[in-house]
Amino acid sequence: MSRTVARENAALTAKHFGISRKTFHKWFKRFKGSKYNVKCLADQSKAPRHKRTWEITLTQEERIRRLRSKYPHYGKKKLKALYKKEYSEQISSWKIERVIRRHKLYPDKKKTEKSVRKRAGTGQKPKKRITQLMKEDRPCLLFHRSKPLRTIRR
Fold it and tell me: How far is it, in rounded angstroms, from Cα 133 to Cα 84?
């Protein structure tokens, strides 16, 4: 159909289908490469080809686990300083946090689970907005004065 309408002109074909010429050429190249198979024009995955991988080596992970078990109440920044002092190697606090999360190396597991559940439950109640307020026929309804006015004595 597009060949007859646009007479094999890419710009006119793109205009006919409401797409850019660049998109038309991309699709046409894909279509031609598949030996004119219409099924190749279906949507393809938009996921990245190369995803980032875990950058911590097994030795680093084991060292962090050992430090955390030795000092369970220390935070990631303090553990970072201890790691550098003990192993003479720089490591980011984010890597330490990721290892702690991955292996659940928290000092009090029950307390952690409770705080996680509490954080998850906070988003359930919607906030009351001023637009939902019931309007009354009272002047200065939305104004509030916390302290009474003082009279000036002379």
Answer: 56
Q: Is 147 left (phi over 0), alpha (psi -120 to 50) or beta?
A: beta
Number of domains in the chain: 2
Same domain for 19 and 63, yes or no, is no
Residue 30's CB is within 10 A of a number of other CB atoms, namely 13
Write the DSSP symbol of residue 51: -
Residue 2's SS3 state is helix
Residue 28 sits in which domain range?
Answer: 2-41
Q: In whole angstroms, give the CA distance from residue 64 to residue 82.
A: 10
Radius of gyration of the chain (CA): 32
Local mean pLDDT, 10-residue blocks, the chain (154 residues): 66 89 90 87 88 92 95 94 96 95 87 82 72 69 62 63
